[in-house]
Write a structure and sequence with these properties.
about 180 residues, Protein Transport Mog1p, Chain A, about 20% helix
């Protein structure tokens, strides 16, 4: 039986305004430590043993050149990324997921989530063997403002087995229910 979903308002994480999550999932905020601008909101299924859905704000913009590369990628028709395109994104856009010594990328493509293009990456953390699926997107302009391709936000789901697979379908459904601020 599918669990009931609730709309959860997401404050201060533009361009996300709402996300629908299973009502029994626990919500937690991670406030930035002194001097650290990154922040996150996570949702964990019951007895998750480390599996969680996270909305992440890095707190700092990427370089202009990386933002331009990201814009060019998202402006193209939706497609599976080549290894060259993945390499071009690198650490600037993908964060630690772009570090081949820490993470193994299984696939990367661009998709539509409620009218907006996002980069989807799947893979596995090398040391912990945790599985991962993440959406990367810019901060789209509010009320006609310009889109900031240097400000990268993420929504991702990760966890070890068997919890990752057990909650993967619910987490993916939630990632695809994001309501954008504009």
């Amino acid at each position: 039986m599918e669990s009931e979903r609730v709309r959860d308002r997401i404050d201060d994480m533009a361009p996300i305004e709402f996300i629908f999550v299973p009502k029994e999932w626990r919500k937690e905020h991670s406030e930035p430590a002194f001097g650290d601008l990154a922040k996150s909101i996570s949702f964990s299924p019951p007895a998750s043993n480390g599996a969680c859905l996270v909305i992440f704000d890095r707190g700092i913009p990427v370089a202009d050149s990386a933002g331009d590369t990201f814009k060019q990628l998202l402006d193209q028709p939706h497609h599976e990324l080549s290894m060259e395109e993945i390499d071009d994104l690198g650490y600037q856009i993908l964060g630690t997921v772009g570090d081949g010594s820490a993470f193994h990328i299984h696939s990367a493509d661009t998709i539509d989530v409620n009218g907006k293009p996002v980069l989807r990456v799947t893979g596995e953390w090398i040391t912990s063997s945790k599985k991962f699926v993440g959406h990367y997107f810019p901060e789209w302009g509010r009320e006609g403002g310009a889109t900031d391709y240097r400000t990268i936000r993420e929504v991702y789901y990760e966890g070890g087995e068997p919890q990752f697979t057990k909650h993967h379908e619910e987490a993916t459904r939630s990632m695809n229910t994001v309501i954008w601020t504009r």
